[in-house]
Amino acid sequence: MSALVGLVVTLPLLSAVVALGVRQRSTLRDIVTIGTLAAGSAMSIALLVHVEANGTVVVRSGGWSPELGITLVADMFAVLVLAVAMVTITLVEVFSVGQRRSSVGADPTVVGPMLLILTAGVALSILTGDLFTLFVAFELMLVASYVLLTHQGRAGQVRSGMTYVVINLFASTLFLFGVAFVYASTGTVNFALLAERVPELATELRWGIGLWFLVVFGTKAAMFPLFSWLPDSYPTAPTTITAVFAGLLTKIGVYVMIRFHTLLGMDDLGPVILVISGLTMIIGVLGALAQDDMKRILAFHIVSQIGYMLLGLGLFTVAGVAGAIVFVVHQIPVKTVLFLIAAMVETDRGSSALSKLGGLISQRPWLAAGFALPALSLAGLPPFSGFVAKLALVDAAVASSSTVIVVVALVGSVLTLLSMVKIWSGVFWGPATEDPLPEPKGWPLMGRAAGVGTVLTLAIAVVAGPLWDASERAATELLEGDPYVSQVLDEVADEPTEPAGPAAPTEPAEGGDADG
To answer: What is the DSSP string of 16-63?
Structure first.
């Protein structure tokens, strides 16, 4: 299994080089891209099964001590998010192949290789066991996402892309300063060692580190008030690219925030995070209600839904963090599918503006159903996965006597439903704005990819019980520090602790080998 952990990161990078080499040969390029993503999905699912049965997998690159070496850790939290992320990216790439047959969209000679690089950054962000490697992973994602946002060269894309890259580079600069400060304070950037050393620091230092990285990761996650770059940047990109960004990039920011602040025992920041959570929910959904374009409404909902994930983190209880994990897992496919449906509407009608659409339910009834199911899930209605996730968060908040944030969350859900009704009324309901058009050439492939994504959102609700058990286990590991910390440190328990040089090889036991 250790080999799979490394391959999930390195295979997309190597395949990106191959895809660039054959970028003008469309069939071969698509085979390389989709084949790599499918292989990554299979490996991530295999890791999920293995970790569920056997526990955390730790990979130490080059045998270096954890103070300086790169450590990859596949614990329950990591493999849950990784599996859903890889499957979702694969579906989006299949969808984009169909879209290219229907209309002029993203440049496939650029999108395939860049999507693979983005995938490597996502996988590395999820699996890394240290802050500096996390910084490198974020930069991989930033470079790839900037190219994906602006490669068509339209004025609006370049302008929004510049806003995106400037704000994210500023966050990256803060990140690098934060890494330096943490290393100066503790002598390490390894998460497992930080989990032991940060709680021993003075209260002011711990608060400073927690707030600093709350800003860094909060910018990546687009939480209030650091979200202004997102609503303008995402809708200008090709919709399939926006689907990947909406489903994954902000969720990776939340993912690392949950891991960092729980492992390092930042419970004191709980009230601050809860206030930010409530503001993020309400400001995001009010922004959505003020829009008259399908993609912009969905873009503001990316912001609003981040607030619910922060709610679970801010409680700093097993139930709260487990609810946040379920919410992340649910949100990745739901947001992606909603943007894929928006892409199909735009491909079919040439616009996503509500004023230019209408009556699609009579012309494309299955497209209306494809929107309705994830939209109801986003609003948190039963029996969909969104209801399961929000119920878990509300129940955890009630148990923690956090009444105000419960009220805010419920109000946010009602407003979310209203904004989904606004899309439904503008796009699908009422008289058709024009006569039915023939289905675009790539429509069947696009529909299958979006359909599988919709089934995935329904499947999350079906397996809510096992998903909750896995999320509760992941939350326990994060909040208690075991077995994450013990697994990483047990690997080097018998080795020298000096931070210089690789660890010495272990002598094989009699009758056995070095791996035992």
So the answer is: HHHHHHTTT-HHHHHHHHHHHHHHHHHHHHHHHHHHHHH--EEEEGGG
